[in-house]
Design goal:
Distance between the termini: 55 Å
Number of helices: 22
Structural class: alpha/beta
Strand order of the largest sheet: 7-14-8-9-13-10-12-11-15-16
Largest sheet: 10 strands, mixed
Strand content: 15-25%
Length: 767
């Protein structure tokens, strides 16, 4: 009973409130307080009408704001008084679609502990069932076809719930109350295991454990298995088996790039890597990303997992199927120390999501296929993160993060930003939100373009976005730029690459006004037609001034210089009036040919790229004269940097507009150190220390002249934790407030957010 019956309120809740158990939460809270009314999902979020006494209504609103479900993220609660109706009881009504409205959608969530104990308990009816879930975990974004979020608008619509599952679904006291993907071995999706090239079918629900046991045995025997997961296929093998890893590399055409690992639990991860409290929180979060961790010395894992790298990318299982590949039950010892779990695709192509597509495309890679018959609506790769200064920082934004929006704090026009060429993402803006698509990859082929287009069409539909303008990178050769030009949207806004980097960092940190932006990366098309990449900008969303940059050197042979860092080593040597004699990186190389290109400036372009500087130093030290993936040389250089060294090399700054940061003295000193036999680790540390000091000194000069004390660091080079850590300390020592990325990548995966912010500023016409 209520103490003051007769008050009724209309409540609109916006945010991530669909697919997270929000309606059951509202139902239980209302019933516990003796309140009447109803709740339903709409295209705008969750709508509530509730009636009762004043104190009970106040307590209900407090509960709504302070104790929402774990996966919910409330952005806004709007409350208005309406006429009381004297209603009795509280109910969940059928969802309603509303024209033009949009609701925020929950990302997929890793399996909760309660579900793990359900499918790990021999006495439970879901024992061994690989599709167990509840309102606290399981698929969301990857199965949604439309909103409002109901079973009928997901890929679970074809699975009719059995009586037991229906009873759970309709019981307010059950944690599967209105869990849309709810299923069991009687009525839900099922597995099949087939050899490469064989015909397959699904015989219907039943006991999955025999198939899982067979898969475990095959993995233990060194086989490569393509496993259909949440957002696509993963290629799995035993992470302790050298020959299986080598064969996977050969078949996947991935000679050096690190493989991601999956370990069953934290105990297993701690046997392989150093795990801080922040790392633990990231690993255990519902997002369940791949977390980059320092590798423990002396582990039994093969070097071939991550050649030339002192870190490993490790994740915990995020579906019941993953858990079951390690053991039947939580209390059982896992059968594998870790499994390789790498994206199910050929090199540089999107992750595969359909069974027949997988059999065709991965038939030459996998020995066997572990398939299921729940369709994947949207392909999503695993996310990658790293922790720094107490925060998880995204390196690749995908499963678990997408389609979670970023609140920008201001109203935005509806804009589509196409991003860059590498590590592509796109960004839509609507209301006060940025809607970033998941990691698309490098726009190098038709398959990736199709992935871009299907994801864009999906998010435009779900979020009801009709862009009135597009933003794009200035590089005329980028596929993303050509796609923007051919989009059919009349208003087009070109955005300089490094300006977008800084704007992206500003956006997620809610900064307004001018900042000093330091953008360090591999490549970006400059306003002067040169390749930029070591930039100091005074910037806001309306524009930027290039105040300084790394000294330009020649990039000989374009992309060939990126694949063959020895070319950049030669270019830096020649620029510093040094000779390549007695340096191992030039053995067997076409030095005379590249020398001629440099002398005559044939097939060369000037570049200020920080990434190419790292390539040159790594090549000089003999670490990576040639590479097979972007950033390989820089990763090797960082990995060998010896801790505890504070020495650095001398550098020069040439004043001007812009000023020039000259590293020719550094190159001369490195060549001398190599000649006298100084260790690679010491040279690497001195180089890193020099760059962080040089960034600090240049920022001090610009900050003093322009009265700026806020610095934004962006660009892929700042994913190097050694460089980032030293630079942050250096800048703070000089009195700067330093702002970093966390919600979006510092690499080109964050470009689209910056492009969208700058395009929106064009609409507003100034700060």
């Amino acid at each position: 009973m209520t103490d003051q019956p007769g008050q009724r309120k209309h409540i609109q809740v916006r945010g991530i409130v669909q697919g997270v158990g929000f309606r059951p939460f509202v139902y239980k809270a209302a019933k516990s307080l003796g309140l009447s009314g109803y709740v339903f999902n709409s295209s705008a979020g969750v709508t509530i009408e509730i009636e009762g006494g004043e104190s009970e209504l106040d307590e209900f609103l407090r509960t709504l704001k302070d104790d929402p479900p774990q996966l919910a993220e409330i952005a806004q609660i709007t409350v208005s008084d309406i006429e009381a109706q004297g209603s009795r009881g509280f109910s969940i009504l059928t969802s309603r679609a509303e024209a033009g409205e949009f609701a925020l959608i929950s990302p997929d969530a890793g399996t909760c502990d309660a579900c793990w104990h359900d499918f790990g308990d021999p006495a439970n009816r879901r024992f061994g069932y690989p599709f167990t879930n509840c309102t606290h975990c399981g698929p969301r974004y990857t199965i949604i076809r439309d909103i409002p979020y109901d079973r009928a608008t997901t890929t679970m619509s074809s699975f009719l719930m059995c009586g037991d599952c229906r009873a759970e679904y309709e019981d307010p006291a059950d944690r599967r109350f209105h869990a849309q993907p709810n299923a069991c071995p009687v009525c839900g999706p099922s597995l099949t295991l087939v050899e490469s090239g064989a015909a397959f079918s699904f015989t219907g629900p039943g006991n999955s454990l025999p198939i899982i046991h067979q898969t475990r045995a095959l993995l233990g025997a060194g086989k490569i298995v393509a496993v259909k997961g949440l957002g696509g296929f993963l290629l799995a093998c035993d992470a302790t088996n050298d020959s299986a890893i080598a064969e996977l590399r050969r078949r996947k055409r991935r000679p050096h790039k690190p493989f991601a690992l999956m370990a069953r639990d934290l105990v297993s991860v701690r046997r392989l890597c150093e795990v801080s409290a922040d790392d633990e929180a990231a690993l255990l979060s519902p997002r369940r990303p791949i977390v980059i961790l320092p590798r423990l010395p002396g582990t039994s894992l093969p070097v071939g997992l991550a050649p030339g790298d002192r870190t490993l990318g490790v994740m915990l299982p995020y579906t019941p199927l993953h858990y079951l590949l390690f053991s039947d039950a939580p209390q059982s010892e896992p059968e594998f120390a870790a499994l390789v779990m790498t994206s199910g695709n050929l090199s540089e192509e999107p992750i595969v999501i359909e069974n027949r597509e997988a059999m065709q495309q991965l038939g030459g890679v996998a020995d066997l296929f572990l398939l299921h018959n729940r369709d994947i609506a949207t392909r999503v790769d695993d996310s990658v993160t790293r922790t720094f200064e107490g925060r998880e920082r995204v390196l690749r934004r995908a499963r678990g993060f997408v389609p979670q929006t970023i609140d920008l704090g201001v109203e935005m026009e509806e804009v589509l930003a196409f991003g860059g060429e590498l590590k592509n993402t796109f960004c839509l803006t609507k209301g006060r939100y940025a809607i970033l698509g998941q990691h698309i990859g490098d726009l190098e082929n038709y398959e990736t373009m199709r992935f871009f287009e299907e994801t864009l069409a999906n998010l435009k539909h779900v979020f009801k976005v009709m862009p009135s303008a597009v933003a794009y990178d200035l590089h005329p050769g980028y596929m993303s730029t050509r796609m923007a030009m051919g989009s059919g949207i009349e208003r087009k806004i070109g955005v300089q690459h490094h300006h977008a980097h800084i704007a992206s960092c500003m956006a997620e940190n809610h900064l307004r006004g001018k900042v000093l932006g330091v953008a360090m990366d591999g490549t970006g098309f400059g306003t002067d037609g040169k390749v930029w990449g070591g930039e100091f900008l005074v910037a806001d969303f309306a524009g930027f001034t290039r105040r300084a940059h790394l000294r330009n050197v020649l990039l000989p042979g374009g992309d060939a210089a990126v694949r063959q860092p020895w070319r950049m080593a030669l270019s830096y040597l020649r620029d510093a009036s040094q000779t390549p004699q007695n340096l191992r990186c030039f053995e067997g190389k076409h030095v005379a040919l590249v020398d001629a290109m440099l002398d005559r400036r044939i097939q060369t372009v000037e570049t200020s790229s920080c990434g190419r500087l790292f390539d040159a130093v790594a090549a000089l030290l003999g670490l990576a004269p040639e590479v097979s993936f972007e950033g390989q040389a820089a990763i090797a250089l960082e990995a060998l940097a010896e801790p505890g060294i504070d020495q650095r090399y001398d550098f020069e700054i040439e004043p001007g507009e812009p000023s020039i940061l000259d590293f020719r003295p550094v190159i001369v000193a490195i060549v001398a150190d190599i000649a006298r036999g100084r260790s690679v680790g010491e040279i690497s540390a001195c180089f890193h220390n020099t760059l962080s000091t040089a960034i600090g000194e240049m920022c001090s000069r610009i900050g003093k002249s322009d009265a700026l004390d806020r610095v934004c660091l962006s660009g892929g080079s700042f994913q190097n934790l050694y460089l980032l850590g030293r630079t942050v300390v250096e800048l703070r020592r000089r009195g700067f407030d330093v702002f970093l990325h966390a919600q979006v990548p510092a690499n080109d995966g964050g470009l689209s957010l910056g492009q969208a912010m700058i395009a929106n500023q064009h609409f507003r016409g100034g700060e």
